[in-house]
Amino acid sequence: MSSPKKFDLSVYLVTDSSLLPPGATLVDHVLKAIRGGATIVQLREKKMATRDFIKLGRELHEATKPLGVPLLINDRVDVAVAVGCEGIHVGWDDCSYEDARKLLGDDKIIGLSVSNKEQAEKAAAAGCDYIGVGPLYATKTKPDHSPPLGTQGLRSLLEYIATLPGPEGSHWGGAWGTKVPAVAIGGINLDNLHHVMYQSVSPQHENKKYLSGIAVVSAIMASPEPEEVCKKFRKMVDEVPPFAVRQSLYIELGNAKFKSIFQNVVINRPIVHHITNNVVKNFSANVTLALGASPIMSEDMSEFSELAAFKGGLVLNMGTSTREAQPMLLAAVKAANAHGNPVVFDPVGAGATSLRRETASMVVGNSFCDVIKGNEQEIMAVYGLDNVKQRGVDSDPAAAGSLEHKITHAKALAVRERNIVVMTGNVDIVTDGSNVCLCNDGHGFMGDVTGTGCSLGSVIAACLAANPLDKFVATCAAVCAYSAAARVAAGKKDVHGPASWQVAFLDTLYQLRHCREDAPQKGYPWWESLAERVEKR
């Protein structure tokens, strides 16, 4: 039976000498990585002769042992025994865990690869010391790997692992699944590390499981500066991602709070970077300006990082969807994530075609979106439900569920993605998974003017950028004010149809600039009753 062991999986380096830069030696490269922050090393050399493998292992172990960094051998128990290192990592096509334990003894570290529930159950029955979960993404360093899990698959698998008790009578005490350290592997680099660590957390309140670290191959082994790269990896593993801003614990949905949300937009005048379809760009820009924010349209990846440095918001609209545009969409979100800027993702028509489902899955699975906004079919498509029916950018009335049904799925997506979901419809739903805000307002003209749904994202992004510590309240205020402005505009005496309503709508949104206590008011301003039209659940 295995005994308790102490080791750190934070930055788990897996070697591959074929990736070394010209002139570098494996031992020297690994030592530099350790100086930078690598906490454990696995020697993986698939094509090396046994004698050479043992020689290299002994040489590397002589260097790592004085530093207190465990050295594990990949697959080869015979090599691990000959080297006398701290342990081994085995896959399911290699030596069995039971045989490895008999040969190595109880004091050695033995880790197992886990890529599905069946393997997780076997690992739990064995009571191994740690698990390597993956592959997370496709990788060239192991072309024969199982299908990539993605962050959603990783999260689901970790959630299942947390329920597994482990072997009876072991030191795990019937809680192997929650206690066993887990490291993710497969295609992890500095660009996706924050997303992997943040989005892999199981949404379950009980038996919640976190990654203990990340395993890296090519991002370190192929780097000409392994020490500097490992310093960055270690820092990012330990830190809170820039986009995971701590939120106010007090949710206030009153008129005074709503007014302060819009006042902050005027005061801060945040830039709102739009990547949206050509049909709505003009209207979205005008809506952004009316609110007091500053719109900019750009689809040039070379300037995304510079735009993100302005600390504004990003609206990512999937209206014009092409496979060629996918890298551009992802680059924009990653730039915003790196600077902690809010991202509003509008998966337009996500349930209509396989291309749109693929694009929505790519964005959500590889980045963090503060808000996902869409109609019922779009939200259900992003959530991953099958047989979602959608005709185009509009919602299919025949596929609509009850209000409670909609709330349930909106909350489930928000919990899973650790963000805010806005499900638009006859009753707009805003939820962060715990809190739910319902807004029953708006006007029928909104469905008769192109871009009204898309431009709601502009208002949300502006409010989030100006109120980073109150994301949920800012989103509620944006949705409620937008719908209320539509109703107020429709009641103007010079509005006779969609065209005149569109002008009045922009004028009405513009009035939000004056929702200050010291601003002169004529009569009872429409925004003074915003909170009265909100139902909080």
UniProtKB/TrEMBL annotation:
Keyword Nucleotide-binding attached: yes
Domain Thiamine phosphate synthase/TenI: 11-220
Cofactor requirements of the protein: Mg(2+)
One Pfam family recorded for the sequence: TMP-TENI
Keyword Transferase assigned: yes
Recorded metabolic or biological pathway in which this protein acts: Cofactor biosynthesis; thiamine diphosphate biosynthesis; 4-methyl-5-(2-phosphoethyl)-thiazole from 5-(2-hydroxyethyl)-4-methylthiazole: step 1/1; Cofactor biosynthesis; thiamine diphosphate biosynthesis; thiamine phosphate from 4-amino-2-methyl-5-diphosphomethylpyrimidine and 4-methyl-5-(2-phosphoethyl)-thiazole: step 1/1
BP GO annotations: thiamine biosynthetic process; thiamine diphosphate biosynthetic process
Reactions it catalyzes: 2-[(2R,5Z)-2-carboxy-4-methylthiazol-5(2H)-ylidene]ethyl phosphate + 4-amino-2-methyl-5-(diphosphooxymethyl)pyrimidine + 2 H(+) = thiamine phosphate + CO2 + diphosphate; 5-(2-hydroxyethyl)-4-methylthiazole + ATP = 4-methyl-5-(2-phosphooxyethyl)-thiazole + ADP + H(+); 2-(2-carboxy-4-methylthiazol-5-yl)ethyl phosphate + 4-amino-2-methyl-5-(diphosphooxymethyl)pyrimidine + 2 H(+) = thiamine phosphate + CO2 + diphosphate; 4-methyl-5-(2-phosphooxyethyl)-thiazole + 4-amino-2-methyl-5-(diphosphooxymethyl)pyrimidine + H(+) = thiamine phosphate + diphosphate
GO cellular component term of the entry, any: cytoplasm
Stored InterPro entries: Aldolase_TIM, Hyethyz_kinase, Ribokinase-like, ThiamineP_synth_sf, ThiamineP_synth_TenI, TMP_synthase
Keyword field: ATP-binding, Kinase, Magnesium, Metal-binding, Nucleotide-binding, Thiamine biosynthesis, Transferase
Annotated GO MF terms: ATP binding; hydroxyethylthiazole kinase activity; magnesium ion binding; thiamine-phosphate diphosphorylase activity
Known role: Condenses 4-methyl-5-(beta-hydroxyethyl)thiazole monophosphate (THZ-P) and 2-methyl-4-amino-5-hydroxymethyl pyrimidine pyrophosphate (HMP-PP) to form thiamine monophosphate (TMP).
Family membership noted in the UniProt record: In the N-terminal section; belongs to the thiamine-phosphate synthase family. In the C-terminal section; belongs to the Thz kinase family.
Name of this protein: Putative thiamine biosynthetic bifunctional enzyme
Species name: Sphaerosporella brunnea
